[in-house]
Design goal:
Blueprint lengths: L1 E14 L2 E14 L3 E5 L6 H8 L7 E6 L2 E2 L5 H10 L1 E5 L10 H11 L6 H11 L14 H13 L5 E5 L7 H18 L2 E5 L3 H4 L4 E6 L2 E5 L7
Parallel strand pairs: 3-8, 3-9, 6-7, 7-8
Antiparallel strand pairs: 1-2, 1-4, 4-5, 9-10
Helix pairs in contact: 3-5, 4-5, 5-6
């Protein structure tokens, strides 16, 4: 079943008189539970595409659909609720709140949504992610790998339908990066979560069920289409 799609998606940035087409007419259909890796050279539009699919940025033109509903029909407060409840985000820079403990960072989406935490589910997450003994620590007291694990726990805390990961291993050493990727894959598979991951690393992309290559803001190659679009 299709969970996420876009039609003729475009994003244009203006800097003075200079116009840059970061995403230039992308059409995409992503199935529920699919692990889709988006790769391509720097400046090809990977992160911009992910941010528009996740409703973090507004398209200049085109449409994004979640479960068949056009996201442009949502008010901004409705999109914020969608991001909290149905989408999870993991970034290269972790984006943890430095004044909050690991546990408080993990619980942010739940608290913002004024929901009651599912303690059994959260215990399962932190045990699987190996951070059960680090929950009372501030981010500054955690290694890069531990901070990324907290960021993954935060992204999964509200049981999202789609997890967006933007270069999640970019700031990690090789071994820690492989462990973080394995955790993302394992947890997403076990929970039935759709995973859309941006990476410049082909070794990471090749582990996905589906690979897309962006060039100049366009899908140049899609493994689901037999190598073309």
């Amino acid at each position: 079943m299709e969970i996420l799609s876009c039609a003729e998606l475009r994003k244009t940035y203006l800097s003075g008189d200079v116009k840059t087409n970061a995403v230039n007419g992308v059409n995409l259909h992503i199935q529920q539970g699919e692990f889709c890796a988006v790769t391509g050279p720097s400046g090809s539009g990977k992160s911009t595409l992910l941010h528009m699919l996740g409703s973090l940025e507004t398209p200049s033109a085109g449409k994004v659909f979640y479960q068949g509903k056009d996201l442009s029909s949502y008010r901004e407060d409705q999109r914020a609720v969608l991001r909290r409840r149905r989408f999870g985000f993991v970034f290269q820079a972790y984006n943890l709140v430095q004044e909050l403990t690991a546990r408080e960072n993990m619980l942010l989406p739940v608290m913002l949504d004024r929901n009651q935490a599912d303690e059994a589910y959260l215990r399962m997450l932190v045990e699987r992610l190996g951070i059960a003994d680090r929950l009372d620590h501030l981010p500054a007291a955690l290694s890069g790998g531990q901070q990324q694990r907290v960021a993954i726990a935060r992204a999964l805390a509200n049981k999202p339908a789609v997890l967006f990961a933007d270069e999640p291993t970019g700031n990690l050493d090789g071994q820690t990066g492989r462990e973080a990727l394995a955790l993302l894959k394992e947890t997403s598979t076990q929970l039935g979560i759709t995973l859309v991951l941006v990476t410049h690393d082909l070794h990471i992309a090749e582990q996905a069920q589906r690979m897309l290559r962006l060039e100049d803001g366009l899908v140049a190659w899609d493994s689901a289409a037999g190598g073309g679009q």
